[in-house]
Amino acid sequence: MDDLATATRDLRTHVEARPIVISTLPVFMEKWLTPYLSDFQNGHPDIRFRFDFHDGISTGGRGFSFGPDIDAMIVYVERPPEGFQSERLFGEKLVPVCSPTLRAAMPDTLTLRDILSQTRLQDTFWPDDWSVWARAMGHPGNLQAPELSFALYNGLIQSVKSGMGVAIGHSAMIRRELEAGDLVAFDAFAIDAPESYYFVTRRSLRNNPKLAAFWKWILKCSGNS
């Protein structure tokens, strides 16, 4: 009985000490979540995290992968996966963006052709942004591949800011750049993104008080509390 009690105590200590493991898109972590995290840590100094990353492709139209060591995922999908506890955080707009300098060199009244005639930049993990946007604009036929692609969203945004070309911006991920005037959005050409950001976990994990605290907090940050 003493051995059993010791083993139970050790297991409880291990579970309590184990960090919460959350898998998300690198861009979501960098551009949206990180600026808020200090607020959560200040209110919950006893909760530790480990953030893993997925590329977003495996959670799209080709299946949903939830690793055994993952407590929760923040995914970008059209609809939440079945068999899990999920909550929509928010959607966003897809909108062409460029630097203020490049915008000044373009016509005051823009046409679809004006935008497509510019050098097109793209994030490799969102390869369909240009084609999805162009179809919504009524563009006939298929677009040629963008001239430049970037594996990191921050690299894409820096290239747009430097005046290299036009990209399809994800409005929730570039809010600070737009507010600072570092990017100019062609708002008349904005569309609703087909996907939304969802917080997903196994239903059994919702009873985890530390995970539940993070769940409540991120919903508040996203405006869904």
TrEMBL record:
InterPro entries named in the record: LysR-type_TF_proteobact-type, LysR_subst-bd
Residues annotated as domain LysR substrate-binding: 17-219
Pfam families documented for this protein: LysR_substrate
Superkingdom, taxonomy of origin: Bacteria
Membership in a protein family: Belongs to the LysR transcriptional regulatory family.
Protein name, as recorded: LysR substrate-binding domain-containing protein
